[in-house]
Amino acid sequence: MHPVLAAFPRRPLRILRTGVPSVVGLGLLGVLMLAFVAGIAVWMGPGILHDWEIRQNPVEVPQARITNGKCRSKLVLVSCEADLAYAVDGRRYGRHVSFSFVDVHFGDYTANVVRSADKPELATLDIGLEAMWNRIATAVGGIALFLAIGIGLFRNAGRSASLKKIARSSDQLTPVTVTVTQMTKSWLGKNVSCAYAAAGAKPRKFAERMKKKENPFFLDGRTALAVVPGSSPTPILVDEALTRIDLNDAERHALLAARHGAMPPPAAWPQPQPR
Questions:
Q1: How many angstroms separate the CA atoms of 178 and 227, rounded?
Q2: d(CA 275, CA 259)
Q3: Are 258 and 4 in contact (CB under 8 A)?
Q4: Which helix H or strand E contains 177, and what residues bound it?
Q5: Where do transmembrane segments lie in this chain (predicted)?
Q6: Are 157 and 245 in contact (CB under 8 A)?
Q7: Which mean pLDDT values do the consecutive 10-residue runs of the chain (275 residues) have?
Q8: Cα 218 from Cα 215, distance rounded (Å)
Q9: Radius of gyration, CA atoms only, the chain
Q10: What's the whole-model pTM score?
Q11: SS3 61
């Protein structure tokens, strides 16, 4: 057992402050991801359904006019739009079309107008029909990606809420050691990534936020002090100043004294990396 763990007070203690990610912040980010899901569905869904119907019985319209036609590429996502004007049996039609698909393309696209033989009011560009399965895969992939991120954020919000509740209600803190795997700076402070392996359990990864001038309470190398509140499966980091827990001055002095003999030079500590 590390000397600091042996010197840790056995009396009831409260956690005064945690670095657990904000439940509200995670929840809002989750809602934002769901908004992206809805946005992709509204943006790409109607066009795909529209062109799918044309695809069942397409007819080229050689006399059609294309105006304001353009395709823009951002990385591998190509977005095309155009205004179409054509006539069928003396009746004139006009339609604005837009669609997106994934492609690695250099140069210009050439396009022709295609309409539905059954419903002449439905028209699109042939490149939209040729990329139909690509468009479907792009929409499904985007929806699946943002949905998965949103679900993950909501799950993390639930874990954060549970951990904060336990931290507020429990006065039984068990000192443990964790491994600091990464420290990164952000405009809000520092993000500290850690790994914790309880006896007989698989290693658990967790992350906390710290203020810009805060640091974990390092014991040696990348090993830092943390506490497990009550029955929580996730520990909470202890800060270098020992202010996250309601320790008295004598207890802080005892922990610092216990660390003094085993602590390596500060140069061996992991340093935060700017983003």
A1: 9
A2: 31
A3: yes
A4: strand 173-186
A5: 20-44, 132-154
A6: no
A7: 89 88 90 96 95 95 92 91 94 94 86 94 94 96 96 91 83 92 86 87 86 90 91 89 92 90 49 53
A8: 8
A9: 29
A10: 0.72
A11: coil
